[in-house]
Design a protein that fits this description.
The chain has helices at 38-51, 68-76, 96-102, 118-127, 149-157, 195-203, 234-244, 266-270, 274-290, 298-321, 325-339, 341-361; strands at residues 53-61, 84-89, 109-112, 133-138, 144-145, 164-173, 179-182, 190-192, 213-216, 248-260. The chain is α/β, with parallel strands linked by helices.
Amino acid sequence: MGFGSGEANRSEVSGGETPAVPRPCPAPLLRCENLKPSWLCDFLSAIDYQMKSQLLTVIPVYNGEPFLTQTLESVARQQRRPDRVVVLDNCSTDRTEEIVKNFAGIPCEFIRNPRNIGLFGNLNRSLDFSTETEFLQILHADDVINPDFYEVMIPMLRDCPGRGMAWSLDERIDEDNRHLSYSGKADGKVEVLVKDVFLQRKAELSNQSFCAVLFKTGGLPAPCRFREDFPILGDTIFWAAYGLECDKLVHVHRALAKYRWHGSNQTVFLAPGLQPLILDEWRTMETNELLRGKGWSLRRKLKLKGLFAVRSGIKAKRVRQNGNATYSREIAQAARGITGWPLWLAGQTLVELRDFYLFTLLRRPRHPKNIYG
């Protein structure tokens, strides 16, 4: 999503099943506090730490046949390869299992859910592996990472004493691996962000793609879960909540991952709904802004509403360009109810100027199904 939108469930449609309540993180097999003497507890804890993976890649997937091989190949080509690769299959009906079990590039563990638990259910199950590794990546089965992704990203968090999160820029590609755009300016800078600046950006829905994120878990359980009441922007809510619990937050201005936009992205299916597409976006902005704990200033509210007007205006225009004028008007009406007319009109002027610059002067390609950029 080229304008900083959430992208968590763009690649999986569960056929309308009600997601199951995510299972809790597994409890440790031994409770050291019940063991005597204390040296034995320390000894067992040391053994348990040594047995943890240093780097674990989890790939949640549902019907990943079209792109899964490319994703696995990108992991196998890493200069610093993961200790474990776990594919969490959400009851695929295509050749996903066959592809994983026949893949020879790197050993993969294939785990099939007993039933489809929905994308966010599977993402929450992916988080359960936090206690089994020092570094964790959740990689969608249609994205790819550059060969130096882990080599670059792990040192960014090596000195982090507890939980940490680092993310890079990403390159947007289409079904045929053709370049579409970058998520930001790849100037090579490394930003270590204080939490307030990070949360400001999350309230402004700054871009952060799954394929570009690396967690340092330190073997600790995930401090939060993906919210299933935000079907499009649940990842944006999650980044903010997770970042709030981190000791280090790093943004690497290099395109080290490739985010794939294609016609079967789940946001394409969810887009015909004002609640997940428009109203939840403003709700996400409000939720992440409140995490700063500073209340609402008039200046801050005007800034966020202005940004919301631009983002909603882009969606309304793209939907209209795709031939659905009625839905486009509904988007505009819903957004104006939040922004008011003055900010809405100002936002639409910026939309037109932006489109002229990007797509006329710079001739940037745009995927016809992408209503976000």
